[in-house]
Amino acid sequence: MPTNPPAPEISIFIIALSPRHAACVRNSGPRAILPHEPRTLAQSNLGIAAICDLASFSKIARLRYHVRSFREVRVNHFLRWLSAAALFSATFLFSVVISSGTEGGGGIRGFQPARVEAERTLEQKFRDIPDAAHAESNLRHLTAEPHMAGTEASHRVAQWLQEQFRSFGFDAEIASYSVWLSQPREVKLELTAPESKSLASPEQPYEVDKDTFDARAVAGFNAYSPSADVTAPVVYVNYGGPEDYRELDGRGISVEGKIAIARYGHSYRGIKTKLAEEHRAVGLIIYSDPQDDGYVAGDPFPRGPWRPMSGIQRGSILYTQLYPGDPLTPGVAATPDAKRIAPADAVNVSHIPTLPINAQDAATILQNLTGPQVAKGWQGGLPFTYHLGPGDATAHIKLVMDYQQRPIYDVIARLRGTDDSQWVVMGNHHDAWVFGAADPGSGTAVMLETARALGQLARSGWKPRRTIVMCEWDGEEPGLIGSTEWVEANRAELESKAVAYINIDVGVIGSKFNASATPSLKELIRDATREVQDPHSTSNRSVYEVWRERATHPKDEATGTARPEPKSETPGEASLSALGAGSDFCPFLDHAGIPSMDIGFGGDYGVYHALYDDFYWMKHFGDPTFAYHAALVRIIGTIALRLDEADVLPYDFTAYASEIARASADLASRAVQPGGDPAAAKAVSEASVQLTAAAARAAQALQSLSGSPLTPAEEAELNRTLAAIEQSLLSPEGLAGRPWYRHTIYAPGIHAGYAAEIFPGPNEALERKDRAAFRHEADALAAALRRAADRLEEVARLAHP
Q1: Which of 476, 569, 793, 794 does the annotation list as catalytic?
Q2: Catalytic: 569?
């Protein structure tokens, strides 16, 4: 097989069309049955039509990300001229007029024509089953009591879930692990100067919602905070991110020896604690500012969905950006006999106390801070001018935490397929900080209704082609523990069998569909949402149409969550973001290399991790009729059935290669900075070219299967090779400084937590200005891209036996 692809012959045509005719072309291109049509410019003798539309302009310059050949200079010269002409005249639309690999004309990506009708019939039978009333009943049961990880209440939930899956016809078992967990014994906060006042007040109960009076609700605390007793002056650090500490440094203010107070938002709370620790603070207070998820955004609970002044966001501060899961068993399952490190040696555990408080307690501290007035963008929503401090304001934190080995309970349910050598895996967690109606109950209610519908199909005579594995994780909230331990325990089998992982988590908090995924699965998600009607649409529009409209007309709105809605990657397409962290897809993608997705319906959600995330909130604000719960069942069921029943697994590696090509171009442009190495970046670009060409050849070969199906044995080998391509992108030694993370393309940002870092190895080396590390990580990345290209060349060979 060639290691350097031949330079592509490229023909470019410019066609000037009216806005009406351009729209017609965009919306009526040829449609393919199999999923692997070429989508890039790397294929030889490829013709391109640039449709210039005076109504809109797509980023023509993105062409250059795909053109990396011996003729690059000549093509880029033309592209610069084309971009300048477009910007001078008006706005334009660029469209590549080749078959995009989307389905249409009755076809379904991944299916031979003879099997499409049967698949559509099966999917429609499935989509006719989900019942909003069933989802509501599920959620009412799941929110009957607080069920934090490590408690007997969480065990009761797991046992009930096991019973439910078994009643639907699944083989269901409970996998238990022994993990190091903390629970609060004493939580104390007081202002000691310039006045004395006791803080850390509890959340206020409301008569309209009886659950808010439940004495079993745990006090506001941050899991994995150490016990401590500290008194110190207070400094306000805004969101507590790297840029905030740079601002403080520039103003001559240090948090060393002081207690930092930060507001929630913009990053994972564990990042806030780690940065405070690195800047030598003796403690951290995190509060919910009404500007971010309270009355500034809208009516607070119980009048509206937003956080009231007494609402507290619980949550973990485990340094999951270093490694998630049980802190004492990194990389291995936390079985009772596992070898454990000492707690003092767990690098993902904080050494400074961290405490979450509500906005009313934060106001008491903040309005007593003196010192300079805050910079623009640091002012929150409380009704006074914010100052940095420290001044005379002094606080006292006392935390007594009870650390023990505690059991957690994963529920693993299987609907056995004809071929048990391939698995479609779905998951959500069942543990909650309190009642957890939205997080995670809505996702679990959807999972149960999906299982009921699949079980009903099975009872009617259908047998899955591949085995469907449905998982309910425990211990997600403290640090993705249940999923991480199960993946670590079963990694070899998962790497051999799992074709995809579908994650839900916060399933429904409104009507705005959103998703994140590995690029190979993004179009599959779009296809599935085209099949499901949006419950609130008055014109029978699909979920996809409503989603796409929102992506093409974005609004800057508060959501109350730490995960921002993704921006559209391609004009006219519904947007999907890259997978970062913060949920159970992390061990599947980042550690085991399983193609993954995370989907749900978003909305106004100000009660994240609060007492008020209960059934009352969901029934009044999140999804009162549970219609979007049923819609999500139809979407994930359609995705699962297409992954399960496909002749050829419906991955889109040309889209993956396209995203890698864009990231490679960005890395090359940044490699001239201090700490970079243009030669190392060039090696990545060359490997990206190889990957793009291999993806195009594989796509062309797979498309030809429509007319010449493979034998069952050939098809099985082809699918095994396709499923293993994601694992080719793993680094055997892992990322520098955090070897648990093995994926060379995506990892949670070291200073973001939830958001994804693209090409994390070299990009983080650039941030550190570490040229040696940049070279090493760029070499590992280039090697991974070459491995993936070789697998794709193997796919092309297998598709033409």
Answers
A1: 476
A2: no
